[in-house]
Amino acid sequence: MGILDPYKGFGVTFSTMFKKPTTEQYPEYKKETAPRFHGRHQLNRHPDGLEKCVGCELCAWACPADAIYVEGADNTDEERYSPGERYGSVYQINYLRCILCGLCIEACPTRALTMSNDYELADDSRADLIFTKEQLLAPLREGMESPPHPMRLGESETDYYTRDPDAPLPWQVGSTPGGGAPAGDTQAEAESVIARRVAGEHSRADEVPAHGAGSEQPR
Ligand code: SF4
Ligand code: SF4
Question: Domain check: are 48 and 132 in the same one?
Fold first, then answer.
């Protein structure tokens, strides 16, 4: 150590005294993240409320921290949670392990899994940091129906993935922005379309005009 080194050290301390503090007043003030910040995960839904997750486990295999646990199960006509053959019956993310790297969302073939900007993932219980499917599922938006229920957007899984996101939805009728509840004669028309779809008699030409945004959620 040179003779001037202590003075250099105190010089750093002294110069810092005149700098603006960078202390964040968290949790009173929550700093906004960058738009593409990788935070808490979300399991997304199709516009009719069916789940996008097909229980394929690709996210779990992609995870370098072994933080995801998935169990798939078969849909039936009586009990349908997603448009395809399979759905994720058990889905867990362990936030004690997760490093928020985003590899799982890149691996997901259906865009079921995305990440939000929510970074508040601390707790005083280890068990509470294992998030279940119910905690991760996206909330039901207007026009969505809680599964299980039949396919409302087509006859097959392919119809869900090949449909134009701007195409009208059967229940999005009238002039309510964002997809309001059906009303008047158009409601009867929408119900008729849904009934025919469920009965397997529907074609795209039957769809009623709609207004409002699609269901795609941030990745
Ligand atoms: S963000 Fe990374 S560590 Fe977290 S669950 Fe996904 S792949 Fe695993
Ligand atoms: S979230 Fe995506 S990758 Fe993971 S099991 Fe579901 S469909 Fe497969």
Answer: yes
